[in-house]
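ZP: hey, is the pyridoxal-5'-phosphate complex queued? I don't see it on the tracker
AM: it wasn't, my bad. submitting now with these inputs:
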Amino acid sequence: MRKSAADRFRHLFNRSLILLRHRHHHHPFPSSSSLSPFSRSRFFSSTPFSMASDSPFPVTAQNINPKVLKCEYAVRGEVVTLAQNLQKDLQANPGSHPFDEILYCNIGNPQSLGQQPITFFREVLALCDHPAILDKSETQGLFSTDAIQRAWQIVDQIPGRATGAYSHSQGVKGLRDTIAAGIEERDGFPANPDDIFMTDGASPAVHNMMQLLIRSENDGILCPIPQYPLYSASIDLHGGFLVPYYLDEATGWGLEIPELKKQLEAAKSKGINVRALVVINPGNPTGQVLGEENQRDIVEFCKQEGLVLLADEVYQENVYVPEKKFHSFKKVSRSMGYGENDITLVSFQSVSKGYHGECGKRGGYMEVTGFSAEVREQIYKVASVNLCSNISGQILASLVMSPPKVNSLHL
Ligand SMILES: Cc1ncc(COP(=O)(O)O)c(C=O)c1O
């Protein structure tokens, strides 16, 4: 018997509450505020660990980096663990539950739920990975002409035509040129390929920025609540302080400037140096699309307060309300007359979201503007420590920012 998605979710949720209550019975659960980071992580950890003295392992949960212990990532947390256990149950004993399948909706992962990849993207990727077939006559019958043309263009941009080689640490220059041109077309303002740092999805780019900005636990990052938990996890991992600001459900999850000011002042009064403001637009999990006026106020706020604006814009294609439109923060700040020297802005984009949903390909970039040459050098140095992001992800990021257009085929 198949159950509705809502029933499945309710069932899973109730099971997880039962599991939590059960644990509570065995381990008195102090309020989370009275838990040390260590004990809080221990409570939420899904794998029990033994005490250091009993352990045959030199590395134990007591002696690893406490920032790792403190970090929580709900997307892969308790409910997912429960679902994986239920799945094992179902495999071992089919029919043991009133459902026969588990759909994982803990993270936006459309292709795992049956969404088909965009043919053009996959054809270009396949051809770039095996350029030897590009000029074979059979290829004309198997692949679309525009995919073949684009693949030629891309392989010619990749040094040695080798998708198996490391690239420039910021990403292949020709692909960054395409991305910059795509940004320019989207925003109507210039974009510089040297400002683009290609990454394995948006997540590593967010970590890069947290690593750059957070010096100690006195450094704070303003983050929306509710938020996508990458931000809280990354701030914990880098040992910073999450300064929450609350989105207002009553105004469609609006981002209110007085709320930002209130939280900023509260953090300052506790001795926190607030370094950056994270804005997720369009929002996750809230789905709101900010209005341009509101975005202008946010830009002004960051400028006045000297905050780096970290704009998570990975959902720019996911706007489902006809009267709403996505505006990038880069476009908004440039249309206010603010250039490189006026506002420090990092925009994150990804191949995982939008209509393409290529999460597993791990592609994305950050556009980094308004940093001094010295700091950019440091960002570049850290990017080079990782050598480069994967080339398929880089190619996809260029395609996402420059998809085929009607009548664009040159025959
Ligand atoms: C708001 C937001 N930012 C960033 C990410 C990370 O995406 P990725 O690392 O796959 O690009 C996600 C993923 O769900 C997200 O929802």
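AM: back. The first strand starts at residue 196 and ends at 199.
ZP: great, adding it to the tracker
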